[in-house]
Each structure stands twice: as C-alpha cells, then as structure tokens.
Amino acid sequence: MQSMKTFFRIFAGIGTLFLTLAAYWLFSAQSKTNWIERPAILEDIKAGPWMVFEVDGQEQRVRSRYSSSDMTEGEEVTVHFPAGRPEEAEIKGFSAQYLLPLIFGSIGLTFAGIGYTGLYMQRKKEQLREELVTMGRGRNVRLPVVSIELDMSFKMNGRSPYVIVAQLHDAASGTTYSFKSEHLWQDPTGLLANNEIDVYVDPSDPKRYYVDTRDLT
Fold first, then answer.
1. By Cβ atoms counted within 10 A, which residue in 49, 87, 137, 160 is the most buried?
2. For the chain, what is the mean pLDDT?
3. Which of 106, 26, 102, 97 is nearest to 68 (CA)?
C-alpha cells in the first residue's frame, strides 16, 4: 500500500505544481487588461519574431517571447505593454496570453485528479482495514486462493502488480463471492500457506472486505 501511496503522492504533487503555474500565468494575463495597445508588424520571424510598432512617433522594435509556426513575415498583430515601458511589449491574443495556462491547467487537472483520487481511495481502504481487522468488526474467514493475476491495467516503472483472488461459496444461498487483494509488487506464489489466505468480511455486506496480505509484503 505504501508504494501505491507514494505513486499517488507524486502524481498529486506534479498536478498541484502544474495547476499553480497555470494559476500564476492566468493571473498574469488578467493583470494586463489595462495595458496600452498598439498595432505592430512582425519581422525576422526565424530570428525573433520581432514586433515593430510606434509609440509617440518613435519606432519600437521588441523581440517577442511568444512564437508560433503559423506566424508570417509582415503579419499585422496587436501588441500591448505597461505605460511608459514599450520594451516589455507582448503580442495580445488568446494563444499568446492563455495557451500556457490552458496547457499547464489541463496537465495539472489530469495528474491531480489521478493523484488525489488515488490517495482518497487508499485512505478508504485503510479505514476499511482498521474497521474490519483492527477494530474486529469483520468476520475472519480462511479461504482458498483460486488465482494470482497480473493487473495489466496498471503499471509503475513498466511493471504491473499482482492481485490475489480468493473465493467463498455460500451454500445456503448458492452464491459464490470473489475477493481481490490490494496490489502486490512481488509474486506471492509460494508464500501462501496451503494456498489459502485470511479475508475479513463485513457480516452485513460481503462487498466490504479486506484480503490480509500483510505477511506477504
């Protein structure tokens, strides 16, 4: 479980960092709404691009920090800059102002979503174990292991974790219940005594259970 928590913490940390950067650039873009605007011409695209515009009758030539493959020589754009500081001019437009916040925000939401959701689910599993095992509210059943599988839907450092599957057949209802363990990062084959494992089951809800793999990690 600790390795999984570390994995999700890394994702949450990366997501938080990217969202912070996105918020910074978004705030920066919003703070420029009162800047002075001027029409400009793009020159020396490959070497710059350079923005050429006039302020109080004097030509200004400022290198743009933003560039795009669709820019063309002689293209007309709008630039804006703080009052009295034309040397800080930037191209005004959606892409120039909001592309970085959109990119970093999207990446941040993806990583943060995976990270914080994973940490939440890990915490729920810990609470379930505390309730069923530590607090003794679960019914302990020794069950046969029917399979040991690789969870190919999940990978960490190019490896997929193992999952132990145990089953319980309820003769009274004729129902067979399957119980899956948490992810294991080493093959538990040969570590299971008599190929059985302890499962703690909520007597009122068989869907709430904990497969005890503490001796296998």
1. 49
2. 91
3. 97
